[in-house]
Each structure stands twice: as C-alpha cells, then as structure tokens.
Amino acid sequence: EKLFVFGDSYADTGNNRISNSQSWKIPYGITFPGKPSGRFSDGRVFTDFLAKSLGIRSPVAYKFRRYANNHLKYGMNFAYGGTGVFDTTAPYPNMTTQIDFFERLLNDNTFTPSDLQHSIAHVSLVGNDYSAFLARGGTNQGLQNFIPQVVSQLVVDIQRIKKLGVKKISVTALQPLGCLPRSTKENSFQRCNDTYNKAVMFHNLLLQQAITKLNNQTTQDHHGSPIVIIDLYNAFLSIFQEKGTQQGSSDFDNIMKPCCTGINQNYYCGSVDDKGNKMYTVCQDPKSYFFWDEVHPTQAGWEALTRSTTLQANLDDLQS
What we know:
Blueprint: E1 2-6, H1 46-54, E2 60-61, E3 75-77, H2 95-107, H3 113-117, E4 119-123, H4 128-135, H5 140-163, E5 168-172, H6 181-184, H7 194-221, E6 228-230, H8 232-242, E7 254-258, E8 260-262, E9 280-282, E10 289-291, H9 299-307, H10 309-319
Parallel strand pairs: 1-3, 1-4, 2-3, 4-5, 5-6, 7-10
Antiparallel strand pairs: 8-9
GO molecular function, one term: hydrolase activity, acting on ester bonds
Family: Belongs to the 'GDSL' lipolytic enzyme family.
Pfam families: Lipase_GDSL (PF00657)
C-alpha cells in the first residue's frame, strides 16, 4: 500500500521549508525526532499515525523526493502547512497545485497505475481557508456564503484525485476551530467559541452531504471504494469531554492550554528576538498536554485522537 497526502499542517511532514516557518524552529520536534523536522508539533502528526495504522512508514515529503529513492514505495506527502483549497498565503502551494505535483509524478512514471491500485490518498483540510478569509476582513456573515465554496472546491479536488486512479480516499472533517487555544485564550482557555464551532458544523454538514452523494454514485458505477471522512470534530470533542469522566482519558492535565506559547501576543511558539533570546515558554511534559501550540495537537494529542473510538472506526472503514 502507498499513502499519498495532500493538505496542510495537520498532515505536513516537512514540505513547508521557508526561512521563517515555525515548524523548522526549536522547540518543534523535541519529542520526535529530537529536533525540528518540519512537523507542526513536538513530534509526530496525523500522517505518521495514519501510515502506522496502514502498516507502512510515513511517506516522504515531496520536498525531499530526490533523496528518497527507496522510500518512494510508501507513497508521498504533498501537504504544506498553512495551505487550503484556495490561496491562503502566497506563494504556498494550494491543494490544486499539490495535486498538479502528484499528476506530474504520475506522468513521468515515478508512480504507475498499478501503484495506485493499492493506494490511499489522505486529504487534510483544517481551516486555513477560513482563517485567511477572516484575516482579509471577511465577516462571520460572509463566512456563511464562503463555506459552500470551500466545500465544493474540496469535492472537486477529491474527484480529481480519484480520477487519477487512487482507489481509496480519506478526507478530514473540520476540527472544532472554536476550541483551539487560538480561539480560547481570550477566556483563559476555559470555553470554546460557539460562533466558530457553528460555522464548522455547517462546513462538516455540507461535506457529509457531498461525500454521501459521491459515494452513492460510486456504488452505482461499481468502481472504487467509498470515500471515508476522518471525523476530527467528534474525535476532538470526545477527548475534551472524557476529561471529566471517571474512566476518562485524564492523560491530559491541560486540555485546552497549549504546551508552547509566546510570552505575549506579539510572539508565538518558536519566536526569538533580535538577540536570539527565546520569546516563548514550553511546558515541562508535552505528553500531559493535548495542544502543542495555538493550533496543533501534541504527539500525545494525535495519539489519543487516533485511539479514539471515532477515528478507530474511520480507520477501519478506510482499510475495509
């Protein structure tokens, strides 16, 4: 089996190699591999856990394909932190461009049609289109009109990957954006932002409807497997809610608080000042935190998500 990965920082394992990318700065990567490796976490990210569940090594980042002769057998990772289906931050490669890269490798026979027979594509879309929209002055009202555009472009991308010959595809449902530390820090990481989460639920509903429709067509045409939604929304919520229960995963002392934060709002995890002084703090034990920074889970967070009954069921569907 090969794994091909498209999307953003929840899936990127080293493509975002620009000079100021957080993911290449200390303290990213302190848990694994022990130094920054381009992953937006203290360690492994979802791609790594997905590959492991498929019984393969995490596929090589597209950026490093030239050094990866014997690793191509695991597939390839095109995901690039900060991207979306539309342009979010120039000149980052949006999803269309990432699929162009993939198509180029198919055209030059780096991967063959028979490789694709036994392959899985994972498509990660976790909200950069929306943060870019709001950062450009978009309103919450405007968001209601923008969400259907994002979902329909996502569906176009998924159909294109399928047409290129990939048999199985998984796509993320949006995580509760209103519960990310970036949204909860204004109330000391106590409460999720309902406005954002309502928008997320609308996105996920439209995605669910679109994928159901595609899957019904697939069943009628008798080719390919159904597309599987990786339900990050309910996986995140299950971890937040288990906190209070007796048998709950009290692995995390700090469920909403990030392990690594800037010393004030002008700085973020990994920031240094002109003299090279650290302008951030890191928790003692990332394993006891669910969030690594304002947006991304820790390796322990990803591990707990992957073990959640929600994602276990999704991964089973992907392999059936």
